[in-house]
Write a structure and sequence with these properties.
Largest sheet: none
Number of strands: 0
Shape: globular
Radius of gyration: 19 Å
Oligomer: single chain
Helix content: over 70%
Structural class: mainly alpha
Mean pLDDT: 83
Distance between the termini: 21 Å
Low-confidence stretches: none
Length: 135
Amino acid sequence: WSIQTYVLVPLGIEYMQTIVFILVIAALVQMVEIMLKKVSPSLYQALGIFLPLITTNCAVLGVAILMISKEFNLLQSIVYSVATAIGFALALMLFAGIRERLELEDVPKAVQGVPVALITAGILAMAFMGFSGLV
């Protein structure tokens, strides 16, 4: 929000927001990685390759761009970001739980693995679409 409000808009370069946001996300992830390496090397080792992958997470970039397009102020942006993170975490936990349960079930051989994961993702997407428009 602050980059859009105090840098991009005054300079008249709003069209650069996607590139600027990607660079900011990459820089923040890099700083977290450096601090994590110093503070908790064991956690840094446990995360491995997954920490830099946050940089390419479309959800992070999507939240930033949606906040700007909806013209939220700072407080609304913070609430929206936190709520989105909670919703994304809930969806990931539900998906992981369903995948764990499917490991114990007798799934037909033709749909084991990726096909059942895609079916599950589609059903979860439809379930979460039911929440659209509530708030």
